[in-house]
Amino acid sequence: MSGGSCGSTSCRARVGLNYAMLALTLGIVYEVTEQRRNRIYANRVYIDILNQDTP
Questions:
Q1: CB of 1 within 8 A of CB of 8?
Q2: Do residues 27 and 20 make contact, with C-beta atoms less than 8 angstroms apart?
Q3: Which of 3, 6, 28, 37 could form a disulfide with 23 if both were Cys (CB 3.0 to 4.6 A apart)?
Q4: Distance, CA of 8 to CA of 23 (rounded, Å)
Q5: From its phi and psi, is residue 44 left (phi > 0), alpha (psi between -120 and 50) or beta?
Q6: DSSP string covering the chain
């Protein structure tokens, strides 16, 4: 890729970080690990569905 200001890996990392911050802000996901690096996020909707009791 020519003319780019970053390598493909670092660009993907930035996009992933921006998506994670947007999802956190909107309340779509929450951060589970409480770490500065290698964070794990959970989707609230899926967790709620999985926690429901089924008859």
A1: yes
A2: no
A3: 28
A4: 22
A5: alpha
A6: --S-SS-HHHHHHHHHHHHHHHHHHHTSEEESS--SSS--EEEHHHHHHHHS---
Report the alpha-carbon distance of residue 25 to residue 55 in Å, rounded.
34
- The tokens of 34 are what? 């409480």
**pLDDT 10s per residue in the chain (55 long)?**
445 566 555 555 565 667 777 777 888 888 888 888 888 888 888 888 888 886 6
By the 8 A CB rule, do 31 and 40 touch?
A: yes
The radius of gyration of the chain from alpha carbons, rounded to an integer in Å, stands at 16
Q: How far apart are CA 46 and CA 24, in angstroms?
A: 15
